[in-house]
């Protein structure tokens, strides 16, 4: 039971990232009908926004000591962060919680990037075949990836979690199991709760706001909504920006788990497209459910007992694709996809 619960927690951790990225992908496909292969780059950009904010908050003023010297007789360097100079103890707190502070930068930055991407490029391919959309957005993803590589280098850049959230918590004891049976990193639990909050916020926005209701109506019947005098195109452009924000936030909060690198967007992109297809193209609940389901399956596939069944071979990177093949053979529109979508 301990091992099963641990793997479920690991699966929910992975599934949170899959679900957030897949949710953004589905928002774009459901509103604009665009297969956006540059979506993984938005995840990467969100992560590097955190790198930028952490770097800015960690800038230091360097002075030479007048009284202390190093073993070579040279004056010692005294390094003090500007945030601490300007804000005292609160400045130290800002540096420590730079991941959370970066979210204030990620939201407007990703919104502008998403709108610029849609207005500058994507809108010209609305009526083009999906193959054209894939080619142009995949090319854009490569360009963005190379830009990040040139600016930040090819090596991963570690981003620390706040000191108070770096340890582990005894989940087993909290669930009434024997103490010490399940020790789990706090930040991974924080990420799961953060993902649940964002997913819940997106669904609440679409369900309970006038803007969201119009968007959902436009997803179901764009022409009829247009005939009512509503400029649905502007609302869909805004939804592209919101999808970029969701994915950017997912990348920003994931940085303490996976150090940002220039190819992380591509690493997640393929998996998340599989998640979207399994859940059903255009289905928001399907994307979220498939994200968590495949994350849990991938986690269980990494267990030693499962590897033993396959003669010691690891299938955790294969299980997602096997599930996708089975589902698409039996139900081409995915688990929760609308009838007629991706069935031909």
How would you explain this protein's 3D organization?
By secondary structure, this protein is mainly α. The protein has one domain. It has 15 helices and four strands. The chain has a two-stranded antiparallel ribbon. A two-stranded antiparallel ribbon has the order 3-4. A hairpin with a 5-residue loop joins strand 1 and strand 2. It is globular, with a radius of gyration of 23 Å. The model has no long low-confidence stretch (mean pLDDT 85). Pfam families: BPD_transp_2.
Model regions low in confidence, pLDDT < 50 over at least 5 residues: none
Largest sheet, spatial ordering of strands: 1-2
| Helix/strand class | mainly alpha
Give the percentage of residues in beta strands: 5-15%
Order of helices and strands: HHEEHHHHEHEHHHHHHHH
Helical content class: 55-70%
Which shape, going by the Cα principal axes?
globular
Alpha-carbon distance between the termini?
43 Å
Helix count equals: 15
Number of domains: 1
Determine Rg (CA atoms, Å). Answer: 23 Å
Give the quaternary arrangement of the chains. Answer: single chain
Sheet with most strands = 2 strands, antiparallel
User: What's the rounded overall pLDDT mean?
Assistant: 85
Based on DSSP secondary structure assignment, what is the total number of beta strands? 4
């Amino acid at each position: 039971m301990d091992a099963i619960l641990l793997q479920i927690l690991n699966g929910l951790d992975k599934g949170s990232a899959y679900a957030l990225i897949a949710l953004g992908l589905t928002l774009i496909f459901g509103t604009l009908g665009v297969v956006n292969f540059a979506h993984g780059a938005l995840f990467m950009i969100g992560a590097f926004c955190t790198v930028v904010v952490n770097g800015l908050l960690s800038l230091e003023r360097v002075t030479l000591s007048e009284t202390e010297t190093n073993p070579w007789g040279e004056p010692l360097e005294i390094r003090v962060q500007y945030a601490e100079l300007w804000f005292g103890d609160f400045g130290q707190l800002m540096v420590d919680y730079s991941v959370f502070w970066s979210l204030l930068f990620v939201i407007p930055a990703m919104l502008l990037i998403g709108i610029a991407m849609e207005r500058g490029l994507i809108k010209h391919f609305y009526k083009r075949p999906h193959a054209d959309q894939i080619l142009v957005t995949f090319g854009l993803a490569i360009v963005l990836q190379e830009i990040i590589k040139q600016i930040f280098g090819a090596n991963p850049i570690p981003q620390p979690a706040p000191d108070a959230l770096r340890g582990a918590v005894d989940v087993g004891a909290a669930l009434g199991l024997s103490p010490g049976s399940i020790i789990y990193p706090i930040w991974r639990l924080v990420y799961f709760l953060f993902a649940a909050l964002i997913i819940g916020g997106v669904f609440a926005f679409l369900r309970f706001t006038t803007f969201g209701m119009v968007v959902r109506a436009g997803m179901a019947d764009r022409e009829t909504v247009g005939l009512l005098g509503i400029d649905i195109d502007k609302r869909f452009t805004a939804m592209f920006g919101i999808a970029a924000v969701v994915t950017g936030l997912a990348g920003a909060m994931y940085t303490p788990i996976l150090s940002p690198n220039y190819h992380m967007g591509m690493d997640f992109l393929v998996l998340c497209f599989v998640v979207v297809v399994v859940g059903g193209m255009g289905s928001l609940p399907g994307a979220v459910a498939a994200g968590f389901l495949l994350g849990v399956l991938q986690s269980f596939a990494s267990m030693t007992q499962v590897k033993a069944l396959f003669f010691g071979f690891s299938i955790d990177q294969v299980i997602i694709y096997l599930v996708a093949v089975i589902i698409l053979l039996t139900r081409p529109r995915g688990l929760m996809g609308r009838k007629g979508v991706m069935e031909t």
